[in-house]
Each structure stands twice: as structure tokens, then as C-alpha cells.
Amino acid sequence: MLTKFTASLSVEIAVPEQPIPIQHYLRQPQRLVNALVDQKRIRQLSEEVFRLKMRPLSFMSLSIQPTVDMRVWAESNGTIYLRSVGCEILGFEYINQRFSLNLRGYLSPYQSKTGTRLEGKADLEVQVDLPPPFSLTPKPILETTGNGLLKSVLLTVKQRLLHHLLADYRQWVISQTQEECFGKDDTQLPILNTD
């Protein structure tokens, strides 16, 4: 029985004023990926594509662990986009062959009267042909459970974004400003002549 689950989530974040605007930080998509996902669960496949090993998901009596390949890229205005480009369910060949995951999202900076804000949205859709024991479960129960599971995945991502992104941005600004201070050519300092 082919079943579709969906979830959407929006986010809006006030960005504290820093010496370097957040648009510069957002032009480095790998930093966003590192802020969203524990680094032990990420493998960079190319400049824009990352393999994310998700935490195990429990759906009714089934536990699965998807691995999702995500393309993450930035526009010159600092808007970051992400799209899933592949997915695999390890250990469950039946479900793996009958499972598709589609994740689309963006995070964009904009100026308001009160300062810079980030706003974004993520849409997650899963289609799966469930094996026979689940096909006996009424479809509304399956959909409610599955939609709730996807919503919890997006809420987890939102919490990581809220807690880790601004902290990483702050650290990045500190490292960039220190490089500017210490990176200057100090051979131009005047030397006092003691003669």
C-alpha cells in the first residue's frame, strides 16, 4: 500500500549584529550543514553534496535509519537552498526499493527595521509502499503517525538551527576578525634607531 507522508516547517531567526554581515557566512553551505547535523554523521561527497546519516526513526513497530544525500548551495545574496538528491534505507531492502524522500528548503537573510533576520522553510515528503502488516492498518492512522514523525524530524532540525547556527556564525566572525588583525604585514612597523 503506497502511502505519502508530508510535513512543512517555517523558521524566523533574529540575527545579532556582528562586524561581518551574515550573508558572508551563509555563502559557505558546508558551515550550515555542520550546524544542522552532528559532524560524525556527515560525509562530504562533492563541493555541494553531503551524505547525512539520520538518527534511527521509529514508525509504529518499525525502526529505520535513512541515509540522505543533500545538495546544499548558496546564492550570491546569501540565500541557502537544500534539496535531497538521493536516499537509502540500510538493512531493509523491501522498504529501500519502495521508499522515496523529497526534502526542499531554503534559508534567506533579509533586512528589517529591527535588524537582520533569517527566514526559511523546509518541506519534507516521504512516499513508501508499506509491507503487508502495515497495509492492514487504517490509512488515516498511518498518515497521522507518519506525518507526526516527519514533523518531529523537522522540529529537531529547527532546534539545531536555532541553537547552533548563530553560535557558529559568532565563532566564524571572531576567527575572521582575528585573522584580519593578526594577518597584517608587521614588517612595516617602524624600528627605533638607538644610535
TrEMBL record:
It comes from the Bacteria. This is DUF1997 domain-containing protein. It comes from Anabaena azotica FACHB-119.
